[in-house]
Every structure is written in C-alpha cells, then in structure tokens.
Amino acid sequence: MEGSARARRTAEKAVKKTHKLTLFLAVLFLVIGLAAGAAAAWGLTRGDRFVLVGDKQITLALGQAYEEQGAEIVSFGRDISDSVQIGGDTVDTGVAGVYQVVYTVEDFRWGNYQLVRTVTVTETSAPSAEEGV
Fold it and tell me: Coil, strand, or helix at residue 91?
C-alpha cells in the first residue's frame, strides 16, 4: 500500500509542477494542428465540383432528338465522371411531357448526391389564321 501511495504523491507533485509554458505550447500546437488540417482539407478539395454538362433545363420540340450531355465530377482532384449513374425518366421525344433525368454519385467527398436535369418536350403547331393575324 505504501508504494502505491508514494507513486500517487509523486504523480500529484509532477502535475502540480507542470510549467505554464508547457500548457501554452500544448495549446499552441493544437491550434497549429487544427489550422494545418483545415488548410490541407481546403487544398485537397478546392477544385472539386459536380456539375451538369450543358443546360439544367432543356426544351425540345416533339420529335426533336435528345442528346444526353452527362455530368462532370471531380473529387479530391480526381475526375470520377465515369462513376456517375444516370437514372430517372427516359426521355421520349415522341411524347410531349416533362422528364427528369437524375445524375447520382456515391463518393466519400460528395456522399450520395444527385443533380437533376429537366427536359420538356412540347408540341409545336403552326399558328392558325385566327391566331397569326
């Protein structure tokens, strides 16, 4: 028992003798480490983007061809556009309506993230004599 009591007193004395400079340096290094971590994270991700190629909203005439333009994604400086999954509605330019094409990426940086392109297929008709005059 006496040995453990002596060890405890020695530890208490060591804690009491902790120099203020030691505490200051510990806090300073913590702040420097946090700032360096934030700077590294910013440097690694500053060029990251997940964007649609082309317009977010497209309007087509009935029967006009729809060409998929895709999406571009850069994560941690690497182009991972090949990992974008395209889903949602299948654009049928033979049927008037509003279609939503959904672009999904599952990535560490972006998580499960989606972008949506809206494609509107409209019926076009020549103006009648009553409307055009």
Answer: coil
The answer, as to whether pTM is greater than 0.70, is no
Element (DSSP H or E) covering residue 15: helix 2-16
- Encode pLDDT of 103-125 as tens digits: 998 877 767 889 999 999 998 75
The residues facing 88 across adjacent strands are 101
**Residue extents of the structural domains in the chain:** 2-45, 49-122
Residue-by-residue DSSP string for 78-89 = EE-GGGPEEEEP
CA dist., res. 108 & res. 98, Å (int) = 32
End-to-end Cα separation, the chain, in angstroms: 109
Q: 49-122 in CATH: which number?
A: 2.60.40.10
Report how far residue 83's alpha carbon sits from residue 116's, in angstroms, rounded to the nearest whole number. 16
Where is pLDDT greater, at 60 or 16? 60
CB 57, CB 70: distance < 8 Å: no
Sorted by sequence, the CB contacts under 8 Å of residue 36 that are 6+ apart come out as none
